[in-house]
Amino acid sequence: MSKLNVIDFFCGAGGFSEGFNQMGFEIHRGYDNWQPAINTYNHNFGTDSEVTDILKFKNSIKEINNLPNTEIIIGSPPCVSFSSSNKSGKADKSLGLDLTKCFLRIVAVKKHKKDSVLKAWFMENVVNSKKYISNIYSFKDLDLTDWALENCIDPKSEALNLRDNTIIMNSADYGSYQARRRAISGEIISCNKLIIPGQTHSNKVEDNLPNWNTLGKLIKNMPSPISKESDLEIKDPVYKGITLNQCDVTDHFYDSGLYKSEWSQSKEHKINHYCMGKMSFPENLNKPSRTITATKSGTSREALIYKSEYNRKGNGEYRTPTIREAASLMGFPFTYQFLGSINSKWRLVGNAVCPSVSRALANRVLLSLNKKTPRTLKLKKEVIHSESGNLNDFKEKSFDKQPKRTKNSRFRRHPIKVGNITVTLSNYEIDKKSKAKNKWFTSIQYGTGINFKNQIVQDNYYKDFEPLLIKNKSGKQFVRIINNGFSEKIADSLTLQKMYELQESKGNYKEPTELVNEVNIIIRNLEIRNNTIKQKEREIFVYKDEIPMEQLFALYAINKIASVANEKGKKNASNLIKQLPGK
């Protein structure tokens, strides 16, 4: 039997194809509607693939028949709308379903056509996609009624079975330095089913397999991104057979440091999110990396953030992975190149299928067809450079362009999350989800679900329970700190908003994120442990009887910030009116 040919739909950077390529399969063509993806695919596989709208196969059998007849069909329909992280899982699924149906329609025709050469097909998507994709597809379901009748097939009969042929694969189980769980559907035609590839790694001692590869191990084996230019030989941390001169390692030797305003926002989302659990900050080096996403971000909860190799505090103290680090986490060789801007390269990497997973599937196909598996992987040993910019500049970044927020950006932040309660400072009404206003609000949230209870707290309320607070030794100390030094850092309401938008403090005043963070530090330094206050008549926290003392402190400080800012704002507005002509 000659080489097995592969066509790849929604091919992106080509991660799905790369795994098959490494196992000796012939990569025939890739299909994608994004030019940087096609450029990258052609560069790495030497194909002449062109930008293609996959939806053209939705209603045209002719277009499907014009596709090459290959032994293997693979595809990764876009997963954004299926992802549970996209608009909390409420995004429009229609396009994702249409594109998935297009792919399955192609597979069904190529599988059931007369004299079919198809040996196997595989589809990759996010785990959440299983909720929206049908278990069984008939020819009628795939809009192939006329085609089925022309080929003497009952249109209502089963064309593809995904119910029994869909599994969840974790890339960490196959040697990747990243834990990436994905739904894999497919079929080895001769077996009439999907056969699960055997794991090569595990996090369970009883499996008697090598342990999962960790993020720390990868970073240790990667050259430092702050290295100076040299001709040193660099070994690929994933593929031991590849050794390159440092000058040939692309997209790695540049400063990916983040402004403090960026990494601190991500840190807050990770360790103190108002409705989600705690995550590591920076990343946990003792586990496989978390999943790389397609969006390059240094501010989100999903962002991957490392401690910078530069000895810096504040701006540049933390960084995102380099493109090459992200590619190695995915399982791409150092010799694999990505074409486009830095954001395009990140998207190409983050959207890809891990080659370790596709390699395991390819190996399973070979075994099922009684074909020999290669002793060594088919790998490029040299870099074919492209005209698409190499990101290496070997320079330390200058942090002189502070990112700014859009005008009237909404603010929401709480100093501490304990007792399933958060005391929040915001510039909008949380319960009404209103737009930002020239006013600051204090509110208390009870619980983290959709139907959480919300208590609005009026300005200057902190004065009502200050006598209760100072009865406690730590409370007395806390009130003294807030009223002697901290309060002087609170600007008027308008200035507070402007500082938030500029993400910079001005003079003696602190911008709101720093104010709330300072409240957190003050409370934690008091070392209050398992100290609660019982409210017999629920006078302060109206929806709970027993309150952690830290939350009483938080309420005092947050309400003080809002009250002082709003009062100063009113005075400034009143003074402006008095200065108007005729006043």
Protein model, in words:
By secondary structure, this protein is of the alpha+beta class. Among the domains are: 5-213 and 351-368, Rossmann fold; 412-579, no CATH class. The chain is 30% helix and 14% strand. The protein has 15 helices and 19 strands. A six-stranded mixed sheet has the order 2-1-3-4-8-7. Strands 13, 14, 15, 16 and 17 form a five-stranded antiparallel sheet that branches. A two-stranded antiparallel ribbon has the order 5-6. Helix 8 runs parallel beside helix 9 and helix 14 packs antiparallel against helix 15. The longest helix has 31 residues, at 549-579. The radius of gyration is 29 Å and the shape is elongated. Residues 81-89 have low confidence and may be disordered.
Q: Strand order across the biggest sheet?
A: 2-1-3-4-8-7
* Span between termini: 96 Å
Strand content: 5-15%
What's the β-strand tally? 19
Proportion in helices: 25-40%
- Class based on secondary structure composition and strand pairing: alpha+beta
Shape: elongated
Lay out the secondary structure.
Blueprint: E1 5-9, H1 15-22, E2 26-31, H2 35-45, H3 61-65, E3 72-75, H4 94-112, E4 120-126, E5 136-138, H5 145-150, E6 158-161, E7 166-170, E8 181-188, H6 215-221, E9 233-235, E10 243-245, H7 260-271, E11 306-307, E12 318-319, H8 323-330, H9 342-350, H10 355-368, E13 412-413, E14 417-418, E15 421-426, E16 441-446, E17 453-457, H11 462-469, H12 473-486, H13 493-502, H14 512-525, E18 532-534, E19 546-548, H15 549-579
Helix pairs in contact: 1-10, 8-9, 11-15, 13-15, 14-15
